[in-house]
Structures are given as C-alpha cells and as structure tokens.
Specification:
With about 300 residues, this protein is of the alpha+beta class. It contains 8 helices and 14 strands. It binds D-MYO-inositol-1-phosphate and calcium ion. D-MYO-inositol-1-phosphate (IPD) binds next to strand 4. It is an enzyme of class 3 (hydrolase).
Length: about 300
C-alpha cells in the first residue's frame, strides 16, 4: 500500500487518533516500567557493558508492537529491540519506537527514562509521544499542530517570551557519552567536550555547563521546552530521536546534523544538533555555525 505524507497530514482525524493511541500505549508502557524491579547486576548487554537491555525493554516493545500491528496493519514498525539491520527505515508510514530510552538510568533507578513513540512518513517525523513514568511527564506533538507538555501546556515553556540565543558562552549544552568508548568518534566527542568547556582565553567556547542525562528523547524534549539551549549527539538511532524531533520542531526548535555544514539532518542519520526556539531563525543558525566551529573532527556512523 502506498500512502503519501500529505494524505495523512491532511487527514486530521487520523493523525489525532494515532496520537491518542500512542498516548494510551505510553501510559500502559509506564505501568510496566513503574512496576519493574530492574537489577544493576543482572541485565543483558548488547555491544558492551554500557549498552544494556532488560526483560522490561523487551516486554514493553512486545506490548506496543502487538497493539500497533493489530490496530494499524498497513503501517510498518521499527523498534529498537526487534530491529533487523537488513530492514532499515523506509519512506513508508512507520512507527519508530524505543520502549525504554535511558535504559542505563532505568536499571540504576535514576528517574530519567521514558518510552519514546514516534510516527514517520517519508522518514519525516510526524507524530511524537514521549512519556517519563517516573515523573509522570508527557510530551506530545503532531506536525503542524504544536507541541505540548502534559497535553495542555504549549511548548516552549516561555511561549512568545522565549529569550534570544546569545552564543555558546551563554548556553547550557547537552551531550551524551554513548556506549562506544574508543575509536575516532570517541576522540571527536572527547576533544569537542573539552573545547566546549574550556576557557575562551585558551581557545574554548566556555559554555555555561555541559549536561549528560542519559536519554536522547528526553534531551530533545528539554530543548523543546527551552530548559536546554542545545543538544549535540552522535551514535544514537532513529528510535531515540523520532518522537522528540517532532516535539522539538513543533516547539520552534531546529535540528540539523552533528557535523559542520549538515543543514539537512536525517532521522536515521545518527548525528544531530538540536537548538531551542528563539526569537529569530538567524540566531539559531548562527548558534549552529558557532557550535560546528568547535567540533573537533567529524562524526562518522
Ligand atoms: C541511549 C540514550 C542515550 C544516547 C544513546 C542511546 P537507550 O538509548 O538515548 O542518551 O546517548 O546513544 O543509545 O540505549 O537507553 O535506549
Ligand atoms: Ca532503548
């Protein structure tokens, strides 16, 4: 079946009802996550000891995938725990799902993890639902219809009073360590982190501070809210960013690539730079260029 993005975007009932379905599923996933007893010493690992998976990641994805396939048999499903490298994301309408984003936090009981439910058409993130069951915080957005916190507060939180962006040295920046701890990407990240923090007198950007809180989806929602100014990421996957992407753009933020000059970011491109809403697009682009000037090398995934 071929479905064009405009057929769905021009059909408000469908997008609204898909979003409502995803919100219901997010709450059901939250019950599983809140009822879980993860154990820091008894988790499975995928690539290494920093790349974790638990029985709860699998149970949440199974529940979501079963329900979505039953209700929307024509749409594809692209989920972290059932991902097959032979089946990459396509242009077809697809649910792009991370059952638990922030699994390291989840197993340690650090209350910063979420279920991330995205829907993409032509690989354009179109619906996003992100729910942190530890804090009962729900973010949601439909392309063209705005982004919301707990369904009633429009994002960004400061609304039309959103402040101007005023350079990296006045910014709170989010980065993540990821699970790959050697090689060229690791070098690029470490040297960039150092430059971001370093005193201007020594050639650094001297950002206000760096945050690394372990969930790409929640990081994007924080940029959408305006509580973080920028988020730079390399190495995560479409399921980590699809939902948060719509929420960010609908909140007036922008997302570009993680390497210098990458103005067109792809949802499955694995390297991203997200910038919060500001009074002018020019100041967002200037901040992207200033950030790219600090990147030490290139991210290659
Ligand atoms: C991880 C988180 C983390 C990001 C990693 C992701 P997971 O997702 O989003 O913030 O830096 O690249 O893999 O493994 O907790 O679903
Ligand atoms: Ca995950």
């Amino acid at each position: 079946m071929s479905v064009h993005v405009l057929d769905i975007v021009n059909s408000p009932c469908d997008l609204n009802s898909i979003c409502d379905t995803l919100i219901d599923l997010a709450f059901r996933a939250g019950e599983i996550i809140n009822g879980a007893l993860p154990d820091t010493g008894n988790t499975g690992s995928k690539k290494n000891s920093a790349d974790l998976v638990t029985e709860y990641d699998r149970a949440v994805e199974e529940m979501i995938s079963r329900e979505l396939k039953d209700k929307y048999p024509d749409f594809r499903f692209h989920g972290e725990e059932s991902y097959d490298p032979a089946c990459p994301l396509t242009d077809a309408p697809t649910f792009v799902i991370d059952p638990i984003d922030g699994t390291v936090n989840f197993v340690h009981g650090f209350p910063h993890a979420c279920v991330s439910l995205g829907f993409a058409i032509n690989r354009i993130p179109t619906i996003g639902v992100v729910f942190n069951p530890f804090t009962n915080t729900l973010y949601s957005a439909i392309r063209g219809k705005g982004a919301f916190l707990n369904r009633d507060t429009r994002l960004p939180l400061k609304g039309s009073n959103v402040e101007a962006l005023n350079g990296l040295s006045n910014s709170l920046v989010c980065v993540e360590w990821g699970s790959e701890r050697s090689g060229k990407n690791w070098e690029t990240k470490m040297r960039t982190f150092e430059k971001l923090g370093q005193d201007k007198e020594e050639g650094g950007a001297m950002v206000r501070s760096l945050r690394s809180i372990g969930s790409a989806a929640l990081n994007l929602c924080a940029v959408a809210s305006g509580t973080l100014d920028l988020y730079w990421e390399g190495g995560c996957w479409a399921w980590d960013v699809c939902a948060g992407w719509v929420i960010l753009e609908e909140a007036g933020g922008i997302i570009v690539g993680g390497n210098p000059g990458e103005w067109e970011a792809k949802v499955d491109g694995r390297k991203y730079l997200a910038i919060r809403a500001a009074s002018s697009r020019v100041s967002q682009e200037e901040l992207a260029e200033e950030f790219w000037g600090i990147v030490q090398g290139r991210l290659e995934y």
